[in-house]
Amino acid sequence: MSDTRPARGLDTNRPHSARMYDYYLGGKDHFEVDAQAAERVVAVYPSIFTCARENRAFMHRATRVLAREHGIRQWLDIGTGIPTEPNLHQVAQSVAPAARVVYADNDPLVLKYAERLMRSTSEGRTTYIEADVNDPESLLASPELSEVLDLERPVALSLNALLHFVPDAQDPHRIVRTLLGALPSGSALAISHCTPDFDPVSWEKVEDVYNGAGTPVQFRAREEVAGFFEGLDLLEPGISVGHRWRPDAASAEEPTDAEVSLWVGVGIKP
Fold it and tell me: In the predicted model, what is the mean pLDDT of the chain?
């Protein structure tokens, strides 16, 4: 990685999902232990690079759609991960310079590089809070959040590539309901979620790699991902494979559904 000095509280003896994701995206903010674990994933599912790129591309498109077509000017991005440009606030502020974004994560390495997430436009504002999605009440009560976001106005809740790291035992549906319950009508939920639907054998092996590395995962089927949007008005085209949700343009080298293996969707709170 670009700076090999570990951040305070950082465990460099075991791989971390955010740093493995950085590896898939071609970043440099990871350690050898992360690269080794990521390569074990590559060995059983070589398309993980495509999956990661399409996940990032979906986040960009969903952010632009919410800003341009639905007037969203506030985002709460949980499970932010290691900063990778363009970050969400850069996409949002390219459409609406006054957009405000709160990033939340509980990885010390993300905290180390959080200054990258706070380079806002002069009109807008961004901040980073250290918080755990498994404790949504504490996250919502954070004073840093209330300093940036007005929860009486619509907020886009961005949960990209996060919920498959929240197994059913941690009650992810309660977490999503709690977060959405604090947001007013007109708010939005954007989710991307890895799925075994198109290649169950490979994704079972990916699951084994993450679980064996100490990171519990639960990849979900389409119907399970759709359950997170209960009570919301889904934007067209509904729950879709990542690259098929509002694509910017057709590509001659469009990936297959199995290569992407992401269910994504955006819903509006009525």
Answer: 92
Distant-in-sequence contacts of 173-179, Cβ < 8 A, 24+ apart: 173/227, 173/228, 175/133, 175/134, 175/136, 176/228, 178/136, 178/137, 178/140, 179/76, 179/78, 179/136, 179/139, 179/140
CA distance 267 to 234: 4
pLDDT beyond 70 at 171: yes
The Cα–Cα gap between 102 and 89 comes to: 9
Is-above-0.85 flag for pTM?
A: yes
CB 81 within 8 A of CB 112: no
Pairwise CA distance, residues 224 & 110, whole Å: 29
> Tens digits of per-residue pLDDT, 76-111?
999 988 888 899 999 999 999 999 999 999 877 777
Phi, then psi, of 195 in degrees rounded to 5: -140, 145
